[in-house]
Amino acid sequence: MKILEAKNIDKYFRKPVDFHVLKDINFSIDKGKFVSIMGKSGSGKSTLLYILSTMDTDYEGELYLNNELITGKTEKELSIIRNKEIGFVFQFHYLLSDFSVIENVMLPAKKLGIKTLEEIKEDAFINLKKLGIEHLENKKASQVSGGEKQRVAIARALINNPSIIMGDEPTGNLDSKNADNIFNIFKELSQKQNLSLLIVTHDDDFAKRTDRIITMEDGKIIN
Amino acid sequence: MIQWKVIFSISKTHLVTRLKQTITAMLGVTFGIGAYITLMSFMSGLNQVLDDVILNQTPHIQIYNEIEPSKKQPIELFDKFKNNVHVVHSIKPKFTQKKIHNALPMINYLNKDKRIKKAIPQLKAQIFYISGSIELAGNLVGIIPLEEAEMFNLNDYILKGSLQELQNLDNGIILGSGAASKMSVNVNDKIQVSTISGDVFPLKIVGIYQSGVAAVDDIQSFAKIKTVQRMMAKPENYITNINVKLHDINIAPEISKKLTQLFDVYALDINTANAQFETGSSIRNLITYAVSITLLIVAGFGIYNILNMLIYEKMNDIAILKAIGFSGTDVQYIFLIQAIIIGFIGGVIGMVAGWSISYFISTLPFQTDGIPGLKTFPVLFSWWYYVIGIAFALISTFFAGYLPSLKAKKIDAVKIIRGQ
């Protein structure tokens, strides 16, 4: 079953000069697969990720999530899709620094507004526990370390049981031990919970251990 | 669907974690609203006192015989010159009696009219105060003391003595303060007053009167209307003025017009008599509003600035919120709510501050000869200013917050996230 499918995606940067960033991208991701995107800087891998994430809507082509066309939906509809179906892990912008760890994790579920506050809190705590950081629950987000922040971000990405987790170099800013740790968490999520993952990375070791590597060069998928 | 609870809690967290900035922004609003309320209360209080000075002692309609030239000169009545141009040189005013014809029935008639609160007679006479060999020119007004006190607050202007004593005493006089000090006389002294025809009467001073206008206080004095009639050897129906007080001051011009037609007398309404006063009041109000609105706009810019800065600081938060599923509108509400909370709390504190300062001002002693009866600064407490104040606080902070929040709504999360 296809979770995510891209058909004939083209993207241009207009400024400072016209530039064809993504050229006719076609690919799909099956459920439960751990996929990494590799490529040199400027190959368009991050640009592609942000299009797939629905945050960038300025492209040509068609994008399907759970076999539903999401190209051309309104900003509001897309934000609901992001809230429900997609979990994000970034390299830098981890958390809302004014909020506590558990509040950060709870935020997407509160926005979804399906469960009660108690249920959300319980879910958030279970997620923190799964990632081994339940002791940080009430700490302020700005007071925890980089590796811990990334784990909090993963807990947050999981809170609404999304169809897919997307990551933009989630281990790029971590030392090898923490990076390894994060990779193992991803791997486990993919194997045990049959979760789909799409991770942009520079890290060869990281990519080699995933189910599938998509390599990009000059705006095209070459492999 | 908008999850207001989450949006509120994020707004609250932003405000609480940046408490100093929040308080600064609130103080801006507080200052604006507080100053507005204080200024309005103080200015309106002053306006009202000044208005009262005029309104209380001025009749709404004064009826008297005006000295004026005849509207129709005799030549116009002559048929032969009907179609000619008339040129009359050196027109003199027509001789009219000062007394109002049929005054007593007229007063009865007026007092039966439901729109009229009261009509009371006066008799104005020119006299001389005799102090040794010196004669001072003056005006003696014959009144019905208690009715005058009731209708025109004459009591407020009696420095010493009382109108009650004037009512009781047939040869009493209440003397203007300027005249009294010129002649070095005081209450219970006796002075001699001479009429124009030369008859001299001894009168006992039962009170000193001060209107605040020196030119009036130097010459004006009051006696019972019967006393003045007797002095002038006139009968009881000799009345030169009728002062009318209405229930509704706004119909004064209309009624005065009718009276002029009905009785063939000159009826002057208060609006005509004090036209310049209205202008003064409305311009003072205008200035007060202009200053207050300026203050509030300055406060609005303060909020605009602080929210703008907050949004720059919170770029990352905005990007994350958008990435995890908050729509642009959600993000806009987060910042708009902050602006409105700042406006509301700042406005409420401003109302309290405005009331406190107004109250404090109203306790400060302030006395002036110009306005007798005034002990402290005049302040008008009107709930209306508080309603306008809080409404303006909310509206101005809404607009001050609207532009920055719109910016937050439009921020491209991808640019922020990729920018680092």
UniProtKB/TrEMBL annotation, chain A:
**Secretion signal, residue range per the UniProt entry:** none
Its organism's taxonomic lineage begins at: Bacteria, Pseudomonadati, Bacteroidota, Flavobacteriia, Flavobacteriales
List the record's Gene Ontology CC terms alphabetically. membrane protein complex
Query: What protein does this entry describe?
Result: ABC transporter ATP-binding protein
Q: A single GO molecular function, which one?
A: transmembrane transporter activity
Originating organism:
Aureibaculum marinum
Please give the CDD domains that the UniProt record associates with this protein.
Answer: ABC_MJ0796_LolCDE_FtsE
One family from Pfam that matches here is ABC_tran
Which keywords fit this entry according to its UniProt record?
ATP-binding, Nucleotide-binding, Translocase, Transport
**What PANTHER family does the record point to?**
ALPHA-D-RIBOSE 1-METHYLPHOSPHONATE 5-TRIPHOSPHATE SYNTHASE SUBUNIT PHNL, LIPOPROTEIN-RELEASING SYSTEM ATP-BINDING PROTEIN LOLD
Instruction: Indicate the family of this protein.
Output: Belongs to the ABC transporter superfamily. Macrolide exporter (TC 3.A.1.122) family.
Give the ABC transporter domain ranges: 4-222
From TrEMBL, chain B:
Transmembrane regions listed in the UniProt entry: 21-43, 286-312, 333-361, 381-403
Location in the cell = Cell membrane
Any single biological process term in GO: lipoprotein localization to outer membrane
Location of the ABC3 transporter permease C-terminal domain? 290-412
What InterPro entries does UniProt report for this protein, alphabetically? ABC3_permease_C (IPR003838), Lipoprotein-release_system (IPR051447), MacB_PCD (IPR025857)
Q: Which GO terms describe its cellular component?
A: plasma membrane protein complex
Q: Tell me which family the UniProt entry assigns to this protein.
A: Belongs to the ABC-4 integral membrane protein family. LolC/E subfamily.
The name this protein goes by in its record? ABC transporter permease
| Biological source species | Aureibaculum marinum
Q: What is the lineage of its organism?
A: Bacteria, Pseudomonadati, Bacteroidota, Flavobacteriia, Flavobacteriales
